[in-house]
Amino acid sequence: MTGPIPARIPAIVMAGSRPGPDPLLAGTGVATKALLPVAGRPMLAHVVAALRASPHIGPITILAQDSAALAAEPALGGFADLHFADSGQGISASLAAALPVGDAPLLVTTADNVLLTPSMIAEFLTGAADSDVAVAMVERGVLLARYPESKRTWLRFRGGWWSGANLFRLRGRRVLPLLDFWGRIERDRKKGLKIIAAFGPALLLAAVLRLITIHQGVARAGLRFGLKAKVVPMSEAEACIDADKPVDIELIEKIFEQRSR
Length: 261
Description:
By secondary structure, the protein is α/β, with parallel strands linked by helices. It has helices at 43-53, 67-71, 91-98, 118-128, 140-146, 176-185, 192-197, 201-208, 214-223, 246-260, and strands at residues 9-14, 37-38, 41-42, 57-64, 82-86, 105-110, 133-139, 155-157, 160-171, 229-233. The protein has a single domain (9-253), classed as Spore Coat Polysaccharide Biosynthesis Protein SpsA, Chain A, CATH 3.90.550.10. The protein has ten helices and ten strands. The longest helix has 15 residues, at 246-260.
């Protein structure tokens, strides 16, 4: 089931740095991943441009450990309704502090989601409109049909293999218990079975035995917190290609070149 998109919801861009050295920054002279140039612009500028071009997005807040350094980036000058805030300890704590009061929805994405487009935003928000928590994902066949060379982290469920697309919708402060829980397990975000196991042995067994689809699995995980949670399948393969590794950036720059033709 889908519903209408609420008019201009706020967006958060997670633009902080994870602990430890980032191999993408080695030898570049760039202090933070969000400002690493891709296709001639800092990663973060691509993401903000896509959000600002969407008729469904209102104020945009950039969250990072040193938001002042990002605010000083010239490529971000001129964007309307753009705000900067220092993040807390961990992704979940930072989001909890940024959530609006009441039941207002919020879009969350990341600074390395550089291939984001207004059409992706519209597709995701349309599919997520009736949920408390929604996550965008791409099925493996969709990605490999366009970019067979792309390597992603996959979650295997009945009916398909899925990879995250760095788009999330959260509705109100009711999601705080889920964010608190995620804060305790987010270090294993790239280890699919560990994440599933954290929601209990029944869900893990059902996933391992391929007894449930990813839609059913996410819905069950949400019910643990009294939330309506759902997966929004994305039709564009580029939605799950983010800039994690040098090979990702090579592919992203090829895609930008194709888009410019």
